Amino acid sequence: MRRWFGTLAGRTTAVIAAVATVAVVLAGLLAAQLVNATAVDEAKKYLAVEADSLSKQTSIGGLQDLRADLLTHGARLAQISTDGRVTGGGARLVDAKTVADVLAGKSVSTSVNGPQNTVVLEARPLAAGGGVVLAQPVSEIRAAAAPLLSRMLIALAVCLAFAIVAGGLLAQWLSRPLVRTAHSAHRLAAGERSVAVAPGGPAEVVEVSQALAALDAALRTSEGRQREFLLSISHEIRTPLTALRGYAEALADGVVSGDDVSGVGRTLVAETNRLDRFVRDLLELARLESDEFRLELQPVDASLILRESWQAWQAICVQNGIAGRLELPLGPLPVRGDGQRLRQVVDGLLENALRVTPEGSPVVLAAYLTGSGLTVEVRDGGPGLTEADAAVAFERGALFARYSGERPVGSGLGLSIAARIVQRMGGRISVRSAPEGGAAFVVELPGIPAGSRQT
Predict the structure, then answer these.
(1) pTM to 2 decimals?
(2) CB 122 within 8 A of CB 51
(3) If residue 101 lies in a helix (H) or strand (E), which one and from where to where?
(4) Where in the cell does this protein reside (predicted)?
(5) DSSP 3-state assignment of 378?
(6) Cβ atoms 412, 399 nearer than 8 A
């Protein structure tokens, strides 16, 4: 039972029952007041009509014929003689002020508060002298209305029971689609995918169902990409591991000796460096996606950083027969960022460009100031990227999975790392077609106020 009250249906039913109970209690109290007040008003009207009728009698003797009818309605009849004496069944309900007013020729319509009860009283003077009085205690009037009030309370109790039952059914109906949605969410949390979420119920529940279906689709897409990325990385790591194991076994078995040892050693070093690059990229990406990654954002001169980076890569351009070109304006390029991380981004983009650019084609490193800050471009004359490639270029392993085996590729993590670093520095990175025929990676970083620039 406690568990049921903890559900949405249980709580909704409890709230409906509480509200219905309060409403019925208030309606009952109001109905009792209205019934009693109406009964008293009707009794007053009846007594007034009868008193007016009795006042037209020519003598007190003629009043006796109406006594039975008055007693049937619970009214008491009393007569006031010309000397002020009060006689009859209602004599004890008549006060002295009423007697004086009637003897003075006045009609009286009032309620007299007695020691034990309130009395409704109607008195009229008679033409022959004296007067007639009709009186009835309020308690008797209310007692006469009690059966009607009891029936009303029974009706209210039936309405209360119906409201509680209807509320419980309504709560079950409202909570059923939400329970189905919660069940689907539990299945998603347990690792199940492509879970059908049946729409239905109120608009809010339908919206939750649609959001859950969208989450299911996003999880399938994300997990699919992660699976492809891990498969690609596993395959790429297995290649140098196979080479390392083969050469290591050859050395252990003495198959390689003499002058061949130095060549094998160079191969082992190259494959080890390749593995190291994979591990470093994975660690760097993990740090970027955690809260432990920190940047030292401060004013720096990007021109110095870009010239140092180009100087390091210029020799590789010459070795590979690539027409390298540096396009920087004269003077400093102030930017707010982390100099070391900016160098890392530029080195990564240049490495990618040199890897895919054929001999004789250009690679350009350019930078210029804009109204909002600094723009850095790395353009190449390689095969370029399609619009579909550009849409996923900065997702980890996306381009690696597409072009592994077709063109030279790295670990599949470099562009993802560059994008995250640029975002952490408050900038953005994009890719488009380059005038040189290949791809142009564009980094936009925020500038700094002129008064705080460093050269």
Answers:
(1) 0.47
(2) yes
(3) helix 96-103
(4) Cell membrane
(5) strand
(6) yes
Residue bearing tokens 């939400």: 178
Distance in angstroms between the alpha carbons of the first and the last residue of the chain = 74
Distance (Å, whole) CA 44 – CA 331:
106
* Whether 73 contacts 62, CB under 8 Å: no
Spatial separation of the C-alpha atoms in residues 45 and 134, rounded to whole Å: 11
The pLDDT of 68-81, averaged and rounded, is 67
Q: What is the pLDDT of residues 180-202, one digit of tens each?
A: 777 777 777 777 777 777 766 66
Amino acid at 197: V
Of the CA atoms within 13 Å of residue 374, those in its CB half-sphere come to 26
C-beta separation of 24 from 30 below 8 A: no
> What sign for the dihedral angle of Cα 335, 337, 340, 346?
negative
Count of residues making up the chain: 455
Radius of gyration of the chain (CA): 50
- The answer to whether 378 and 392 are in contact (CB under 8 A) is no
Q: Are 119 and 137 in contact (CB under 8 A)?
A: yes
